[in-house]
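Format is sequence with structure; example below:
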Amino acid sequence: MERTLFGKLLLLIAVAVFIGLQVSLWVGEGGVRDLRRHKDSISTLQKENEKLAERNRVLEAEVRDLKSGLEAVEEHSRLDLGMIRDNETFYLVTGNPDARRAPVPPPAAAEAP
């Protein structure tokens, strides 16, 4: 009878250890849940890095244009800073504010029977 009691106790301890290891594997630090969270975080950071890398490529191209020729500098000066060349005249054309509105059709005449 002692052997069966000892065997049952040993089996119970083995099951408890197995359950403890499984819990640690699935929900503990460095477990499956932690690994999945880190993979999601890495994916998000990679997407953000791709966006930033594209922005950097655009900025590098703009810097190259600004260093290589005067056309880009002139365009930047005109559009962003509102500058004009010597002996140029700047005209600001404004229209009639009422002309921008859509014409209102006249009210329909009521027909008498």
Summary: The mean pLDDT is 82. DSSP finds three helices and no strands in the chain. The two ends are 114 Å apart (CA to CA). The helical segments are 2-27, 32-68, 70-81.
